[in-house]
Amino acid sequence: xxxxxxxxxxxxxxxxxxxxAAHYAGEDExxxxxxxxxxxxxxxxxxYLECCDRWWRDGGPFHTFGIRTGPELALAxxxxxxxxxxxxxxxxxxxxxxxxxxxxxxxxxxRAVRLACSYAAAIGCTxxxxxxxxxxxxxxxxxxxxxxxxxxxxxxxxxRVLDWHLRDLRPAPHVTSPRSRx
Length: 182
Known about the structure:
Pfam families: Acetyltransf_3. Residues 10-173 form the N-acetyltransferase domain. The protein is of the alpha+beta class. The chain has a single domain (5-168), classed as Gcn5-related N-acetyltransferase (GNAT) (Aminopeptidase), CATH 3.40.630. The chain contains five helices and eight strands, in the order ββαααβββαβαββ. It has helices at residues 20-26, 29-36, 42-58, 108-122, 137-145; strands at residues 5-6, 10-14, 62-69, 74-82, 92-99, 127-132, 149-155, 161-168. Strands 1-2-3-4-5-6-8-7 form an eight-stranded mixed sheet, sandwiched between helices. Strand 5, helix 4 and strand 6 form a beta-alpha-beta unit. The longest helix is centred in the N-terminal third of the chain and has 17 residues, at 42-58. The protein is globular.
């Protein structure tokens, strides 16, 4: 599935080597702190973007989208739909996302997460998970606005403590109302 996902404001397209300049320029301290852990080097970023391209060709386990907006589809950030990770149950996808500083505070991350949930459901996932550090209140707010419920705070095998937010991706069951009797 490589076609664009859009809600009319945000468009998700696969991230790849052609996004190097915009992604490199967009990285700031907040993205490093919450998402990547270390500042990108040009060589490391080129390798990562080549991996993104390969993962798209191979069907995962990471499906990394560029979050794009406007008529020119400017790159505003990224969102990953990660499957097959050791910490996930069968049918779960982990979502990881970040916006570049000029694009924050506009609701774009929430829109991107909703679109990423649609993508995860389309590839067969039944639940989406957002894991974030307890101090990352912006990420937790995005999760809540995108329909996720707080699940738990837990210690991860790498020693980090993360809050888990969960969203069921299965269609809601159809409910019929009882018929009135005359």
